Amino acid sequence: MKQLLLALQARWKLLVxxxxxxxxxxxxxxxxxxxxxxxxxPMDALLAVLxxxxxxxxxxxxxxxxxxxxxxxxxxxxxxxxGGELFLLKRVNRDRFEQMRTRFERQxxxxxxxxxxxxxxxxxxxxxFAAGVFEMRVAPFMLAVFLGRMVRWLVLSLLVMxxxxxxxxxxxxxxxxxxxxxxGALVLAFVAIGVWAIRKHRxxxxxxxxx
Length: 211
Fold this sequence. Notes:
Layout: H1 2-21, H2 25-37, H3 43-53, H4 58-72, H5 74-89, H6 94-106, H7 108-117, H8 124-133, H9 138-163, H10 167-177, H11 179-205
Helix pairs in contact: 1-2, 2-4, 3-4, 3-9, 4-9, 5-8, 7-8, 7-9
């Protein structure tokens, strides 16, 4: 079985992947869906090449790839929702399982958003699977994946346009070497955005004073 999977992956890389790349935007969408759902693809490297060869389309590449990841992620998410609880309970006891559920439900959006931002070898599909197990709603799940991927690939695209395709390895090394600093900066950024949104919402509710 393992040899069969390896053979299919080799055929995918040699035959299917190049054909999809030639399809342009549609091909990128299908590749990102496959990467998120079943067959791993070096998406960072692929996007780096596409952006470097056609810089004017970098934003569209990021949007399409992020949307594809959100759609493709529905497969491991659905598997987790369908029977993932029994799968997890075979590996952890009930108390540990309930602790995981409580922690995930309190910060479920961030639990999917942050891993979606991080490059490999982050076990992204494990967090997606957990989102299904703990019954995160579909819309917030897809939004978290989309936003996380957009942040990741926008930063990558800007660096590629500045430094070239070699920026892929630079980004991965920098994040893994300074993971705590990176996550801390993300938290501060989201807190700042949240405070700004709350203040804006409150100001919009203040009635205008007639003169």
